[in-house]
Amino acid sequence: MSTERMPNPAMLIPGAMEALVAVNTAIADTGVDGKLLALSHLRASQINGCGPCVAGGAHQAQHHGATAQQVHAVAAWRETPWFSDEERAALALTEAVTRLADRPDAVPDQVWDVAAKHFDHKELAALLLNIAITNAFNRLNAPTRQQAGKW
Questions:
Q1: Residues sharing a CB contact under 8 Å with residue 59, sequence separation 6 or more, in sequence order
Q2: Does domain 34-135 have CATH number 1.20.1290.10?
Q3: Residue 53, Cβ neighbours under 10 Å: how many?
Q4: What mean pLDDT is predicted for residues 53-74?
Q5: In angstroms, what CA-CA distances link 15 with 20, 102, 118?
Q6: What is the pLDDT of residue 52?
Q7: Which of 58, 50, 51, 63 is nearest to 74 (CA)?
Q8: pLDDT, tens digit (0-9, with 9 covering 90-100), for 91-147
Q9: Which residue, among 51, 50, 11, 43, has the nearest Cα to 138 in the 3D structure?
């Protein structure tokens, strides 16, 4: 097992972690379903290989009412019956936004239109901020090899 390369960078810059946490708090305060946000966080973190965020996302998803089936199958959400249409729209958007460079049209209209059918602008803003902050945490944790369960 690899070891940490350095402490989490956001912990080394005064005010950085507090700012990241403040964005998370603002997202939570929008009223968007916590389970949906946690499933999105979990999926992005799986894609990015961020151990602490995968562990945290799974815990938060269960805390907000996700079933064990959902938590265990979120990486294969397209091939399971355990996600609502709204959750599927959020997960498709999460994957597209997390994998921006994987296709010429980073977030295809089909993905955006389905998400926009299920979420209003404020909810989409919360979901996009959730995906962005998750990717920020992933990009701090993965290269520095932060370990799940260490906090």
A1: none
A2: yes
A3: 25
A4: 97
A5: 9, 33, 35
A6: 94
A7: 58
A8: 999 999 999 999 999 999 999 999 999 999 999 999 999 999 999 999 999 999 988
A9: 50
Q: What is the DSSP letter of 24?
A: H
At position 103, the amino acid (one-letter code) is: R
- With 0-12 / 13-18 / 19 or more C-beta atoms within 10 angstroms meaning exposed / middle / buried, residue 88 is middle
**Mean pLDDT across the stretch 69-81?**
97
d(CA 150, CA 70): 25
Q: Is the pLDDT of residue 20 over 90?
A: yes
Nearest Cα to Cα of residue 90 among 40, 135, 52:
40
Which residues, including other chains, have CB under 8 Å from residue 47's CB and lie 6 or more apart? 95, 98, 99
pTM score, whole prediction: 0.94
pLDDT at residue number 106: 93
Cβ proximity of 83 and 70 under 8 Å: yes
**φ, ψ of residue 143 in degrees (nearest 5):** -70, -25
Domain boundaries, the chain: 34-135
Judged by phi (left if over 0) then psi (alpha if -120 to 50, else beta), residue 149 lies in left
